[in-house]
Design brief:
The chain folds into two domains: 9-283, Rossmann fold, CATH 3.40.50.1820; 286-444, Nucleotide cyclase, GGDEF domain (Alpha-Beta Plaits, 2-Layer Sandwich), CATH 3.30.70.1230. The chain is built from 15 helices and 16 strands. The protein has helices at 50-57, 83-97, 110-120, 147-160, 165-170, 172-175, 181-191, 194-204, 233-242, 264-275, 300-307, 309-329, 349-365, 389-400, 410-415, and strands spanning 9-14, 17-24, 29-34, 61-66, 102-107, 125-131, 220-225, 247-251, 286-297, 333-337, 342-346, 370-382, 385-387, 405-409, 422-430, 437-444. It has an eight-stranded mixed sheet, sandwiched between helices. Helix 4 (147-160) packs antiparallel against helix 8 (194-204) and helix 11 packs across helix 12 (309-329). The longest helix is centred in the last third of the chain and has 21 residues, at 309-329.
Length: 445
């Protein structure tokens, strides 16, 4: 849908260890993102909202992400890297890209290392942004915790590493969708081995930078979400209070992962803190032309009541699996499931119509009658979601048709002329909430 190409992975050499990094954007400000417990700079682009978050930062800055040594695409090492070694890796990356001074954007476990770097090399840090952070790992332990209980938790995390369990707490909004659990699990396996994560967890338990908080001289912004399941919001408040001149902003809801969910306010706060401006193109939503497809299982409520929850759940799982296969086959983007239907986009209207027809035929064979509506227009990209009049129009078009039908707007028929598709006029309609009358057509192959 866009001409955007993911950034190239490069390597900076620190001693005999190669550290993988990526650069996005060409802005006058450098932002070095310091990751949390684990990372994989290429696979993280698979997470909904992650790439979009970095792209919007890159509208006013040059954004540098990296995998700390021992993880992701960086060299594996024996043991766990100390904060001092991680700090040296950041300096090596900055030297490699020619960055003399940068904004440090620390996330979770990356916050203590960012704090140490800013205190040690204040001349190389213009600002520091700390999201979901803490100063002392011991504060993360529940009240009344014992060494034996802490060891048992680490061992359980080590045992379950690679099945996505740990990341469910980092991105609970994604974990609610069973289709994303394999994504979380794969990320864990690619980011680190079980032995590697065990060593990191043991080292992280000793992190404590409280003694140097008063030494911070650079402007610091502390950001935290009240519903963070990993780092309690009280630790974010305490962190900001312990840094002289530290500014604190708290958000009422959201995941521990900074890129997940609603990020407009977060991005605006970062931009304003770093540049002094909030009204740049950062906050302008990206708009692209796309064909929007809405589908719906006809009579889903009645079918669910007749079948019972367990059997209906199996039907929905089959429906979702079929939807992913059909949309992928026709080079579309499956935006989300609507419970008993899907929302998808395509950069070619012909493929969109053919996908709708094929999906309807396949679903009918497993006993799920579908209806589908399509419209081509400009949409707004909102992280992993989309918006705009074109989305509402496609939903309203779908609402007019019956089971086993695919209806489209006139715009779609005009754009696919000569593509071998057949359209039958279905009349002129008023679509709720959308001005004018709309000529609609039923599609067939």
């Amino acid at each position: 849908m866009t001409n955007f190409t993911l950034p190239e992975t490069r390597y900076a050499l620190n001693g005999d260890v190669s550290v993988a990094y990526q650069v996005m954007g060409e802005g006058p400000v450098d932002i070095v993102a310091v990751s949390g417990l684990c990372s994989h700079i290429e696979f993280m682009h698979e997470f909904p909202g992650y790439t979009d978050f970095l792209r919007r930062l890159a509208k006013f800055a040059r954004v540098i992400t990296f995998d700390k040594r021992g993880q992701g695409l960086s060299d594996r090492i024996s043991g766990a890297p100390s904060l001092e070694l991680r700090m040296d890796d950041v300096r090596a990356i900055m030297d490699d890209v020619g960055s003399h001074r940068a904004v440090l954007f620390g996330f979770s476990e990356g916050c203590p290392m960012s704090i140490l770097f800013a205190a040690t090399y204040p001349a190389r840090v213009s600002h520091m942004v700390l999201f979901g952070g803490f100063a002392r790992a011991a504060d993360l332990r529940p009240p009344g915790d014992t060494p034996d209980a802490a060891l048992a938790r680490r061992m359980l995390r080590f045992k379950n590493w690679g099945n996505g369990d740990m990341l469910k707490r980092v991105l609970p909004s994604l974990a609610a969708d069973p289709n994303t659990i394999p994504l979380l699990a794969k990320f864990e396996r690619l980011a680190s081995s079980p032995g590697g994560i065990r060593t990191i967890l043991e080292l992280n338990g000793q992190i404590d930078v409280t003694s140097i908080l008063q030494a911070i001289q650079v402007p610091t912004l502390v950001l935290h979400r009240k519903t963070d399941l990993v780092v309690p919001v009280a630790l974010g408040r305490s962190l900001a209070q312990s840094i002289q001149g530290g500014k604190y902003i708290e958000y009422p809801e959201g995941d521990h992962g900074f890129w997940s969910g609603e990020t407009d306010a977060l991005l605006g706060d970062i931009e304003e803190f770093v540049t002094g401006n909030r009204d740049s193109s950062l906050m302008e939503r990206e708009r692209v032309l796309a064909t929007v497809l809405f589908t719906d299982i006809v009579g889903s409520t009645r079918s669910a009541a007749t079948m019972g929850d367990q059997r209906w759940r199996r039907f929905l799982d089959d429906h979702d699996q079929l939807a992913r296969a059909m949309v992928g086959k026709h080079r579309g983007n499956l935006v989300k499931s609507t419970g008993d239907g899907i929302l998808a986009t395509f950069d070619g209207p012909g493929r969109a119509v053919r996908c709708a027809l094929a999906f309807g035929d396949a679903a009918k064979q497993i006993g799920l009658p579908l209806r589908a509506g399509l419209h081509t227009g400009e949409i707004e990209l909102r992280g992993s979601d989309i918006g705009g009049i074109a989305v509402h129009a496609a939903a309203r078009v779908m609402g007019q048709c019956s089971a086993s039908e695919v209806w489209v707007s006139r715009v779609v028929t005009d754009l696919v002329a000569g593509a071998g598709l057949v359209f039958a006029e279905r009349g002129s309609y008023e679509l709720k909430g959308i001005p004018g009358r709309w000529d609609l057509f039923a599609a067939s192959a």
